[in-house]
Amino acid sequence: METEVKDQIVSIEKPEISAPPNWEPVIMGILCNWCSYAGSDLTGTSRIQYPPNIRIIRVPCSSRVDPWFLIKSLQTTADGVLVSGCHPGDCHYISGNYYARRRFLVTKKLLNFVGFHENRIQFSWVSAAEGPKFAKVVAKVTEEIKRLGPLHLYKKENFEK
Amino acid sequence: MARVGVFVCFCGANIADFVDVPKVVEETKKIKEVKYCIEYKYMCSDPGQGMIRNAIVENRLTSVVVAACSPRMHEKTFRKALSDAGMNPYLLEVANIREHSSWVHQKEKKAATEKASDLIRMAVAKSIANEQLHEISVPVTKRALVIGGGIAGIQAALDIADARIPVTLVERSPSIGGRMAQLDETFPTLDCSQCILTPKMVDVASHPYIELIPYSEVLELDGYVGNYKVKIKKKASYVDFSTCTGCGACTQKCPVKIPNEFNMNIDKRKAIYSPFPQAVPNKPVIDAEHCTMLLKGKCGICAKVCEKGSINFKMVDEVIEREIGAVVVATGYDLWDPKPYEEYGVGRFKDVITSLEFERMVSASGPTNGVPVRPSDGKVPKNVVFIKCIGSRDEAKGIEYCSKICCMYTAKHAILLHHKVHDSHAYIFYMDIRAAGKGYEEFVKRAQTETAATYLRGRVSKIYKKGEKLIVRGEDAQIGQVVEVEADLVVLATAIIPYKTNPELARLLGISYDKYGYLSEAHPKLRPVETAKAGIFLAGCTQAPKDIPDTVAQASACAAKVCGLFAGDTMKKDPMISKVNIEYCSGCQNCVKVCPYQAIVTEEVPFGHGVKEMRTVAKINEGVCQGCGSCVAICRSMAINLAGFTDPQIINEIVSI
Questions:
Q1: B657 touches chain A (CB under 8 A)
Q2: What value of ipTM does the predicted structure carry?
Q3: Is residue A19 situated within a structural domain?
Q4: Contacts of A68 in chain B (CB under 8 A)
């Protein structure tokens, strides 16, 4: 039953979305202060270049990220969301990233259920020392979101028109 | 209506070269809440901060956005500028347009400019929802708890007490002194360990600001920095310390003999014992596991010979509670058991011993009165082979790390052997000589020249018996040949490992430990004595292997940290912590479950509206909360919010671009 529903719904994301020319996705990056935000700062200080599509929001810990933020981002401004926290075991707040990981898996299922492609939200572990990794993650996520195409067709205002 | 001021920094050329700053300012001015927007070369400079201060006053700003480098860099600087202008410092937001835009999009000026504008728009949107926050003051109980009475604990306790702060020192064994009390002489100066340690031990016992609780363990720690409550189990000693004079008659007459752990089981001690002659406190305790009176109800000789009547077989364990503000953990180290080295005959050959056993033998107060002997026949050994890195740097059998002190104490043992047995010869098998430290390299040279110890670079493959002798077969890698040494005694420099109860203690204290069991410091370089839990500090080998000078330095560092913590009557704390709106709280207690710091408790409040019944709601302990926000995301009723990162702030950021 579950798989049936899933299969039906995932198909919503697939059809005739054609990206307008020169379309660039907007990706919301929600990063924890202690590891990933510091890592993204290191990417900057190391002058490692990555695609300019990401807009970064700082939160104290990945466990602060409410699924609401992800859904709201997709509903309003973003075509994809990246959440990044400390590596498992390295959480500044002892166990916060484990909660984030669980919540994230559930959120993916929810996304599937409501008809978004689950890859529109991405999760990664980036430590404060992994500047190059952050750039790679952003490049990969940007590429993936580009492949999935624009999400604005599903935005509220488009439904209302 | 919000009145936001935006200050865009060029950061010299760092931002201006890759982001079109005038364009960004132009875009920013279009936001209707922005009442003031200006660019400047260096916002963090004094004139830059002056601009912010003036603009706040002149334009009656309600919040400020600085678009510059990472908030991790200059957030504090700009917050201070806000305070100086009489504005609440938490009304500041920093848009990170350097690390997150100009530096990472150096080839795409247009995109970087757009992104910078977006980041500023997000920061403006967030700042509109910012609230005035005030630093939290937490009262402090000015008493420190020191766990462990080795040299680390002794030094920390003395330094804290000298600052006139009361200290409770908890020691698990009957006497303080720890491992250092077992040592004979110490590298690199060869001063006698007891001579430098025992005066400090006596100082601890007589210090008016130190409460010494020997033969006890920490059971429970509750509370938070500045306001901990500790429960200490004082094990029954069966001797009333208040009347005991320490005459020792009981120890002499006790008929039970058991291996003496202080002397590495080389000789025997009694069931009522004081671990060593200079023990502090110098009062005996009864070992309940071996005393025949306590086990079988027969004997009681000690009670008969005690003139003061200090023996009380009915004594029970006692739980002592203390209110403390900070904890120094100094539980020390243990020695790795070399059993996996079967090819060295560990356990089979009596004359293969560990370095601490050798240390006890060469100690003047040790079981053999300072003369090393062969455990098998009591003869004085002539040829002694020392093997280093037993367990250390051995991923296959032992542990990966270097125990740090073995190179030095083995050199010391070679010298001591020469001092005690003049016609002896020391052979040392080593992997590397790690002698980094003041006077250390010179000390090793001294062992090699003055003592003429033979240093052989290579591992020992096998030890076998030939008559009375032990044949040590190993490789001398420098000549590329197998060598065999006829030895009378073999000493294994075993690795040091954390004390076995460290993981248990770490859980009890709520701090973390590494895969070996060493307690983890908050930062390996910049916060080496703090733990991730505020108010708990680490000293000595409980954190990593170290020698005595490093241990003492770390203990004094802990004392400085404790004194700093207790400098005022209250502590200041970052106000970015969670708050519960009890109007919304349904009492589901999910937040209680996810809080990593046990900072959330429940309380009963009246329903209100004239209803007398009580309902349960969550309550955050401001002193404990560290502001991670786990509880906010789990709250179904949206009753909790994290100051500085509230839902309206983050949602504003999301919807603003």
A1: yes
A2: 0.90
A3: no
A4: 647, 651
Nearest to B254 by CA among B267, B273, B240, B238: B273
- Cα B141 to Cα A94: distance, rounded to the nearest angstrom: 26
- Which domain range does residue A114 map to? 24-155
pLDDT digits (tens, 9 = 90+) for B470-499: 999 999 999 999 999 999 999 999 999 999
Chain-chain contact of B633 with A135 (C-beta, under 8 angstroms): no
Q: Is residue A56 part of a domain?
A: yes
- What value, to the nearest 5°, has the Cα angle with vertex A28 and ends B592 and B37? 105
User: Judging by DSSP bridges, how do beta strands B536-538 and B460-466 pair with one another?
Assistant: unpaired
B598 touches chain A (CB under 8 A): no
Number of Cβ within a 10 Å radius of residue B535: 23
Which domains are seen in chain B, by residue range?
A: 4-128 (3.40.50), 144-229+319-332+499-569 (3.50.50.60), 236-316 (3.30.70), 335-497 (3.50.50.60), 578-656 (3.30.70.20)
Give how many domains chain A has, as a whole number. Answer: 1
| Chain A residues with beta carbon closer than 8 angstroms to that of B597 | 93-94
pLDDT tier at A157, thresholds 50, 70, 90:
low
B103/A45 touch (CB, cutoff 8 Å), yes or no:
yes
Contact: B628, A92; criterion CB under 8 Å: yes
CA distance B103 to chain A (A): 5
CATH number at residue A77: 3.40.50
* Chain A nearest C-alpha distance from B504 (Å): 17
Residue A125's nearest CA partner among A102, A95, A80, A91 is A91
Q: Is B599 on the interface with A (CB under 8 A)?
A: no
Question: Residue A72: is its pLDDT beyond 60?
Answer: yes
> How far off is chain B from A20, nearest CA to CA, in Å?
18
**Chain A closest-CA separation from residue B67 CA (Å):** 14
Provide the whole-model pTM: 0.74
Query: Per-residue pLDDT for A156 more than 90?
Result: no
For residue B149, what are its two tokens?
A: 């009475």
- Residue indicated by tokens 């991923």: B395
